[in-house]
Amino acid sequence: MSESPRKPAFYAVGRGAGGPGDWLTLLHPPYTLWHLAYVAIGAAVMRPLVASRLWLSLLAFFLAVGIGAHALDELRGRPLRTGISGRALALAAAASIAGAVALGVIMGGWRLLPFIVVGGWLVVAYNLELVGGFFHNDVWFAAAWGAFPVLTGAFAQHWTLSVAAVVAAVAAFFLSLGQRALSTPARMLRRQVTAVSGVVTFAGGEQRRVSGDDLLAPLERALRYLVWAVSAVALAMVLAR
Length: 241
Known about the structure:
Blueprint: H1 20-26, H2 29-44, H3 51-75, H4 86-108, H5 113-127, H6 130-133, H7 138-158, H8 163-191, E1 199-201, E2 207-209, H9 212-240
Antiparallel strand pairs: 1-2
């Protein structure tokens, strides 16, 4: 059973002409918000909360992940089907990652240097699938986009880590694995599958046809719920400080 072409992501608003909609889609707004929430959670487990360092950390991760990582990802393979030129994507990635590094140096200097180096490497290695794609898998995704933001957000508060920060990083790691378990088949259905054919037979003998939308809808509904849940937890933790 053939089906109508789907947008490359449920949040895609661009028309593939390189306009503002394409740039907004490039940011992956729900997922960027989700991963920024991990930075806030990391900061919130460290007392007292230094608001200025939290905001700088959020800005740095927005530049590095929200823009830089996603621009590199789009540069390699065009998964979002945007019309943004390769030159513009490369410039956006370079400028945003450089800006994130500069913010890290300004905020913490040599104390943040290990996090700056590791973070910069993860952004490039994961999204460009360096070393034969060794860093481009679920475990590295969970470490880079889940645990690492928590640990960095926590460390940037007082240049130390607590047991609570490590436990929060473990939670973010497994939440990110859950994200991948949902988003990987959702992306496949949206970007690679053109037809789905099947029938579900119930215990009472009733039969119902299954479409691609039937498979896709619960995956993306769960992803939306998780975005808001993790973001709300992060906001509650920050407000509690």
